[in-house]
Amino acid sequence: MNSIMRPHVFINVAASADGRISDESRRQIRISCEEDMQRVDRLRAESDAIVVGIGTVLSDDPRLTVKSQALREERVKNGRTPNPLRVVVDSRARTPLNARVLDGEAETLVAVSDLADEERVAALREKASVFVAGQEKVDLRALMEYLYSIGVRRVMVEGGARLNHSLIAEGLVDEIMVYYGGMIIGNGPCIADGPSFKPPVPLELVRVSRLGSGVLAVWKVLADKS
Ligand SMILES: NC(=O)c1ccc[n+]([C@@H]2O[C@H](COP(=O)([O-])OP(=O)(O)OC[C@H]3O[C@@H](n4cnc5c(N)ncnc54)[C@H](O)[C@@H]3O)[C@@H](O)[C@H]2O)c1
Ligand SMILES: Nc1nc(=O)c(N)c(NC[C@H](O)[C@H](O)[C@H](O)COP(=O)(O)O)[nH]1
């Protein structure tokens, strides 16, 4: 794969002990304990952009903002915006106009593909910036190159399952942080949903620690040597 200039990209995800990130209805399940939610807030505050897939916007309607006022103020003191840029990977421009990511609390970029309906894109442009790349799905490499070109150096990916899989498949992920909560979910999307990687993508364990009622594991994605 040709190397590109792109930001450092890490996935942060909360999973059950059986590796599921929600249930079979894809409705959000609170897996993180309070300590983990605080860690997630710090990670957001340290990032330049937070990326999610449209599936996550449709099922969870996240705000993707920094919740701690102290952390927002620290960002401002360092000459940054109070919140990182919110990025939605949304091939067909399905982001609802009343989605929380379009609430104006932070800047938002919706990444769409050539499939997106022009009228929907025009409506989104009223509330967000729009980046177009890719014929059917969003071209994730082009998106990362674009984010780098506008000064984004650290990207936090907050799911979901299919976006995580595509980013890993494209070799665009440097690090994966998994908080394992004390529960078994059974059927449901897993950390990376998609065709099996053959061979499996190798990871190196960077750190593991007990956090609240669960376990935090930090993995480095080993570069594809092929
Ligand atoms: N526990 C957690 O930490 C956590 C975090 C986020 C989401 N979730 C859960 O994940 C589920 C949502 O995940 P999902 O897999 O349904 O949706 P997703 O958020 O991964 O979005 C996937 C969608 O993005 C679009 N897309 C456009 N270009 C793409 C590309 N190049 N590659 C991949 N997708 C592309 C497609 O429409 C695709 O269906 C929900 O159940 C949500 O609750 C859990
Ligand atoms: N870290 C984390 N732990 C969980 O247990 C869980 N279910 C999610 N799911 C991710 C999802 O997209 C959430 O909805 C956003 O973390 C909410 O973000 P906001 O508070 O709205 O900014 N994320």
TrEMBL record:
Keyword NADP: yes
Enzyme class: oxidoreductase
Superkingdom, taxonomy of origin: Archaea
InterPro entries according to UniProt: DHFR-like_dom_sf, Rib_reduct_arc, RibD_C, RibDG_C, Riboflavin_Biosynth_HTPR
Keyword Oxidoreductase in record: yes
Record GO biological process: riboflavin biosynthetic process
Pfam families to which the protein is assigned, alphabetical: RibD_C
EC number from the UniProt entry: 1.1.1.302
Reaction catalysed by this enzyme: 2,5-diamino-6-(1-D-ribitylamino)pyrimidin-4(3H)-one 5'-phosphate + NADP(+) = 2,5-diamino-6-(1-D-ribosylamino)pyrimidin-4(3H)-one 5'-phosphate + NADPH + H(+); 2,5-diamino-6-(1-D-ribitylamino)pyrimidin-4(3H)-one 5'-phosphate + NAD(+) = 2,5-diamino-6-(1-D-ribosylamino)pyrimidin-4(3H)-one 5'-phosphate + NADH + H(+)
Sorted UniProt keywords: NADP, Oxidoreductase, Riboflavin biosynthesis
Domain Bacterial bifunctional deaminase-reductase C-terminal: start-end pairs: 7-216
Pathway: Cofactor biosynthesis; riboflavin biosynthesis
Record GO terms (molecular function): 5-amino-6-(5-phosphoribosylamino)uracil reductase activity; NADP binding
Gene3D superfamilies for this protein: Dihydrofolate Reductase, subunit A
Subunit structure: Homodimer.
Entry similarity comment: Belongs to the HTP reductase family.
Protein name as annotated: 2,5-diamino-6-(ribosylamino)-4(3H)-pyrimidinone 5'-phosphate reductase
Organism: Archaeoglobus veneficus (strain DSM 11195 / SNP6)
